[in-house]
């Protein structure tokens, strides 16, 4: 985490990217337990194949959690004012996810200086998996 000031930040600035280890079955099992999301499509290969998928794939919320980690490595979580995403692609086993963000607006709201960020995840092929935004108070 860094001590950033509103005046230091400019529209177009980027957050330090966060690149994760490739998605594996252990990560999916651990996330299923931590999130209490035991949907078989994420942990049972036979079920996933019967559903027409080549194999299990990551929970969307796992990648959202990675985006949250990127944000809270940059600012204290108490500074987050809004954080939302939409899922635009599946994160398969073996995908190496990189989280990125960029400042798109500086604003004043609720008596605070805030910045709006566009955030996303992409795999090692450059394919976007999640698009989102966040608002941070500085």
TrEMBL record:
What InterPro entries does this protein's entry cite?
Answer: HotDog_dom_sf, MaoC-like_dom
Instruction: Tell me the ranges covered by the MaoC-like domain, including all copies.
Output: 22-106
One Pfam family of this protein, by short name?
A: MaoC_dehydratas
* Gene3D superfamilies referenced in this protein's UniProt entry, alphabetically: Hotdog Thioesterase
Q: Which CDD domains match?
A: SAV4209_like (cd03453)
Q: Which residues form the signal peptide?
A: none
SUPFAM superfamilies the record matches: Thioesterase/thiol ester dehydrase-isomerase
Q: Which PANTHER family match?
A: (3R)-HYDROXYACYL-ACP DEHYDRATASE SUBUNIT HADB, 3-HYDROXYACYL-THIOESTER DEHYDRATASE HTDX-RELATED
Q: What protein am I looking at?
A: MaoC-like domain-containing protein
